[in-house]
Amino acid sequence: MRVRHGCDYSMRNKCLALLLFVALVVVGATTRFAIAQEAKLGSAQQTQIESAISKFMATSRAPGISVAVVENGELIWSSGFGFADLENHVAATSATLYRLGSISKPITATGAMQLWERKKLDLDAPIQKYCPAFPQKEWPITTRELLGHLGGIRHYKSGSQDDPEAGNTHHFDDPIAAGFQFFANDPLVAPPGTKFRYSTMGYTLVGCAIEGASGEKYVDYIRENIFVPAGMTHTRADDRFAIIHNRTRFYSQDKSGAVQNAEFLDSSYKIPGGGWLSSADDMARFEIAILNDRLVERATRDIMWAPQKAADGTTTGYALGWGTGNSLGVLDVGHSGGQQGTATMMMLVPEKRVGVIVLINSDAADAGALATDLMKLLLGTDAGQKKQ
């Protein structure tokens, strides 16, 4: 089961539509901007990929898209299409920073597995060993269960913008303490280990475990131990007060399909599960670092990518922070993300050492569908079946 939707946001649109620019976006969708990497794709394959992106933009009305392609464990092509900022006609590039949404979860999971590999974090110990601030519940909860969405922690109470979590407007300096005030005292939705219940809140607890095991703030640990060794020099927390170069604007669509500004969100309370900003180039570097065993060892990676099982033996299809699938005829791993003003997809086929990143500055687009189509082109498959 590859996670197609980050489950972070259910859209409700109120803002003034940017009707003046819709035609510009659709007509200009074929325009490609600022390749950040010397193209190593074959010309025919690159043409196919650009054509697929152009068609997707025309039908989805996505204002801007950034895409990166990894082959043989290296970045071979990346580009931006459309606009990062419609009002100021700023082109999207492969360096444009998008909200990652739930693609933040594999980043957090990799940090946790790194600490496990270093024997600093016991995945099966009660979470309070590393996070004593979290209240005791009726049953013990482990980091392994939280990583696999088996911890019994609830997700958002609703998908409405009026939900104080899904549509949070307050800024917090400490994402762990901030997240706790929303859910820490709530009852569990199921005994840990028994049911798959997707939960961004559960990843705040994973972030707390990382802090306890490492002795560092979550954001600092991830920056020093994931971003720096991977070469992700522009990835950072989504801070609405900071001046962040290359950050995109965030868009949605009204009921008629017209592009408009997205609902407001301050994601500072949920950075571990959905609060990072990154670019297509930086996320490709993350894929490369994972494929080349630079963040965790191969054996650790295999454990991280193994689908989890509930207590009754049912396989959930979700691994430790990563979704898994085989619709292309070969194992793929990755994650999607969706929240106000963004739709994202990270997809890897480890056996082929191929990866795709799709980042879109609209919550009305299906990044997973485009990523899957691009992966089929890279693998030379048709409707998920290998060509003979």
According to CATH, the homologous superfamily is DD-peptidase/beta-lactamase superfamily
Overall number of domains? 1
Shape: globular
What name is given to the CATH topology?
Beta-lactamase
Beta-strand level of the residues, as a percent range?
Answer: 15-25%
- The topology string of helices and strands comes to HEHEEEEHHHHHEEEHEHHEEEEHEE
Largest sheet: 8 strands, antiparallel
The helix content, as a percent range, equals 25-40%
Terminal Cα span: 26 Å
Low-confidence stretches: 1-5, 7-38, 383-388
Computed CA radius of gyration, to the nearest angstrom: 20 Å
Verbal overview:
By secondary structure, this protein is of the alpha+beta class. 31% of the residues lie in helices and 17% in strands. It is built from eleven helices and 15 strands. The strands form four sheets. Strands 1, 2, 3, 4, 10, 11, 12 and 13 form an eight-stranded antiparallel sheet that branches. A three-stranded antiparallel sheet has the order 5-9-6. A hairpin with a 5-residue loop joins strand 7 (251-253) and strand 8. Helix 3 (104-117) packs parallel to helix 6 (200-214), helix 3 packs across helix 7 and helix 5 (175-183) crosses helix 6. The two termini are 26 Å apart. The relative contact order is 0.21.
